[in-house]
């Protein structure tokens, strides 16, 4: 199994990024959601092995994250809590005067170069928390992403 990224999910402005809610099947997402933060569980082990990623869990998407690694690309995979009925939690990508707003949705992945940044805009209500995974890809996937974005 590998990442299947459609061109429709690849964007050049304001910074090159991939934004998709279809990279991981809903069934896989649900199985992993049930084992949140349990990297030793068979579902997570299989996902990590099959997709050739490193995964780091975070409990809330509230501020800019300093990447753990300086790989070419980093993925932010959003795991919206089932009790979260709010909208918003926007992510702002900026390059000069160009801006783009993305919303935090369950099973959505943002992939950008690890040296690029974005802003998480403040929410009206801080609860519930918004868990996410920080993901790093193997060399072959990094090459595939770069080819799609440039």
Uncertain stretches of 5 or more adjacent residues = none
Biggest sheet, strands in spatial order?
Answer: 1-2-7-4-9-3
Which homologous superfamily in CATH is the superfamily?
q2cbj1_9rhob like domain
Could you say how many structural domains there are in total?
A: 1
In terms of DSSP E residues, the strand content is: 25-35%
Could you name the CATH topology? Jelly Rolls
CATH class: Mainly Beta
User: What CATH architecture do you see?
Assistant: Sandwich
Arithmetic mean of pLDDT: 87
Instruction: Report helical residue fraction.
Output: 10-25%
What is the count of DSSP helices, taking H or I runs of 4+ residues? Answer: 3
Characterization of this structure:
The chain is α+β, with helices and mostly antiparallel strands. It has one domain (7-149): Sandwich (Jelly Rolls), CATH 2.60.120.620. Helices cover 20% and strands 28% of the residues. It contains three helices and nine strands; from the N terminus they run ββααβββββββα. The strands form two sheets. Strands 1-2-7-4-9-3 form a six-stranded antiparallel sheet, with helices on one face. The radius of gyration is 15 Å and the shape is globular.
């Amino acid at each position: 199994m590998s990442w299947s990224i459609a061109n429709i999910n690849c964007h050049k402005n304001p910074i090159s990024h991939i934004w998709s809610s279809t990279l991981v099947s809903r069934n896989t997402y649900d199985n992993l959601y049930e084992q949140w933060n349990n990297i030793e569980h068979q579902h997570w082990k299989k996902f990590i092995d099959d997709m050739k990623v490193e995964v780091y869990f975070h409990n809330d998407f509230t501020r800019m994250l300093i990447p753990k690694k300086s790989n070419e690309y980093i993925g932010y995979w959003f795991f919206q809590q089932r009790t979260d009925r709010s909208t918003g939690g926007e992510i702002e990508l900026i390059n000069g005067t160009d801006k783009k707003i993305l919303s935090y949705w369950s099973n959505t992945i943002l992939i950008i170069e690890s040296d690029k940044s974005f802003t998480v805009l403040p929410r009206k209500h801080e609860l519930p928390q918004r868990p996410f995974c920080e993901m790093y890809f193997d060399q072959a996937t990094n090459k595939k992403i770069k080819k799609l974005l440039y």
